[in-house]
Amino acid sequence: MDSFISPKNLNHRMSDEELFWRASMVPKKPEYPYSRVAKVAFMFLTRGPLPLLPLWERFFKGHEKLFSIYVHALPGYELNVSSSSPFYRRQIPGKNVEWGSISLADAERRLLANALLDFSNERFVLLSESCIPIYNFPTVYKYLIESIHSFVGSRDDPSRYGRGRYSRWMWPHIHLSDWRKGSQWFELNRKLAIMIVSDTKYYTIFRHYCKPSCYPDEHYLPTFLHMFYGSLNANRSVTWVDWSHGGPHPAAFEKVNITEGFIQSLRNNGTMCLYNSKKTPVCYLFARKFAPSALEPLLNLSSTVMKF
């Protein structure tokens, strides 16, 4: 029973088709035959090493029953950590990923499907090797578990970088008025995660017609959720990213950029957002893009500023 409700061995041999089918299974009986403690699944999409791993290990310490970790890396890379690390044996079977292609969305769905195999995982957050937490674990856990919404940015962008990427071949199943854009760094509840790995119709349309220069990872989830589950989405991301410099990639932060004032500005920059239909100054729980050189000053500030 334990291996069914919470698989410990992530190195399975299921194909994506088999994995998504298995992950889409939903019990009809609402009660659980065991004492279920809701967990947050932290899903890391990375090319290889996790240079900020010591910061994440400090973040997770002492909360082992409240989270699960999943790592998707390129084939051939093996995450090498000590047996005491929460990342130990948490790498899932990965496939090649190319930026801007459907393979990136494939990897995201692969992470979701593996995380859904653990019936205790209730929330699912996508992260990269350059992401950091900006609050401590209890704050992040409470914020996500108690939210009535998922957090996926979804906006109608009339420019060539938004509506300009729509393909008329998607009609009549997806109309131009349905087309949405958002950050790939999502957070989902269990219900929406199951809907996403179960979807074949709309994902196949994206696979066929959202080719490079369309960027499926920026459009599939925002469009799909807007069309069918908009009321369940907060329509914002909980991961802060700086796009103010323009270009195809966000700003990256090095050791010299890491100060107490900078981290405090990420935690509370004076803006307000809605959380469970009420205004709050806490809009972001994570931030990116941080270079490996940022690790040392981040560790120095974690206890005093981020409180872990």
Account of the 3D structure:
- There is one protein chain.
- The chain is α/β, with parallel strands linked by helices.
- Helices cover 31% and strands 12% of the residues.
- The protein has a four-stranded mixed β-sheet with strand order 2-1-3-5. The protein has a three-stranded mixed β-sheet with strand order 4-9-6.
- A hairpin with a 2-residue loop joins β7 (273-275) and β8.
- α2 (16-23) packs across α4 and α4 crosses α6.
Q: Kindly report the average pLDDT value.
A: 95
Largest pleated sheet = 4 strands, mixed
**Tally of individual helices:** 10
> Helices and strands: which structural class?
alpha/beta
- State the end-to-end distance: 35 Å
**Rg, nearest Å:** 19 Å
Overall outline = globular
Low-confidence stretches: none
H/E topology pattern: HHEHEHEEHEHHHEHEEEH
Strand order of the largest sheet: 2-1-3-5
Q: Percent helix among the residues?
A: 25-40%
Number of strands: 9
SS strand fraction: 5-15%
Brief overview:
31% of the residues lie in helices and 12% in strands.
Which descriptors would you attach to this protein?
308 residues; alpha/beta; 10 helices; 31% helix
Summarize the helices and strands and which ones pair or pack.
Layout: H1 2-5, H2 16-23, E1 39-45, H3 53-60, E2 67-72, H4 102-116, E3 121-128, E4 132-133, H5 137-145, E5 187-189, H6 190-198, H7 201-209, H8 216-228, E6 239-240, H9 260-267, E7 273-275, E8 278-280, E9 286-287, H10 295-306
Parallel strand pairs: 1-2, 1-3, 6-9
Antiparallel strand pairs: 3-5, 4-9, 7-8
